[in-house]
Structure formats: C-alpha cells, structure tokens
Amino acid sequence: MHETSIVLSTISIVEEEARKHGVSKINSITICIGELTCVEKETLRGCFDVAVESEALAGAKLIIEPIAAVFRCETCGASLERKQWSTTCPKCNGGNMRLEQGRELYVKSFEAD
Ligand SMILES: [Zn+2]
Q: Could you tell me the distance, in angstroms and rounded to a whole number, from the CA of residue 103 to the centre of ligand 1?
C-alpha cells in the first residue's frame, strides 16, 4: 500500500464530490482504514498536507478512523478480534474462520462550509 496513491485518490474523490455539490471550501475529510491495510497513518497525514494543492482543500484536516480487524467463524458465527485469531474457532473448533473487517480503505465523508 502506498500512502501517496491513497492520498491522491482520496483527494480526487473529494474534489469531484465537492464540484458536484458546488462546495468551495472543505474543512475536513474522514477516511476509514482497516487495521490490516498496513497504512502508516503518520505518513498518510504527511502526504496529505503536501498533496493538497487546490484552494478548496487547503487547510483541510485529515481525520483517520481506524477499523479493528474482526474474524468470524462461518460455522457458529463467533467473532474474534485480531489478538484472539487462530485458524480454528475457539468456540466450536471449526476451521472456517473468515476475515469480516479490517481491510477497509475508503473515504467516509467530508465536511464543508
Ligand atoms: Zn465457531
């Protein structure tokens, strides 16, 4: 995952939305990042500050919402956090564990004047 490309696509998504809605100034952008996406949050913030060029986005704050990894057992429906993760379900001993969330990466919302 490259932080720069994430930032650039985030910016272009928000700019397009802003254009559609006739927004001229954006205050903040919220992006959701799953725990397993291996994105360095501080790098992301740094890239964001450098990449913002348009007037509408100048000074906009980047808000990062982390999404914790959750695994779910397909057999009994038990859900496990990342630290509890194993290939077999601790409740039913089934081997059908699946990642339910934790790989997300998307622009959730942005706030404008
Ligand atoms: Zn189970």
A: 22
pTM here is: 0.82
- Compute, in angstroms, the gap from residue 88 CA to the centroid of ligand 1: 8
What is the distance in A from the centroid of ligand 1 to the CA of 89? Answer: 5
Residue spans per domain, the chain: 3-69+101-112
Quick: pLDDT tens for 89-113.
999 999 999 999 999 999 999 999 7
List the CATH code of the domain at 3-69+101-112: 3.30.2320.50
Q: Which residues surround ligand 1, an ion (CB under 5 A)?
A: 73, 75-76, 78, 89, 91-92, 94
Q: Residue 69: count other Cβ atoms within 10 Å of its Cβ.
A: 20
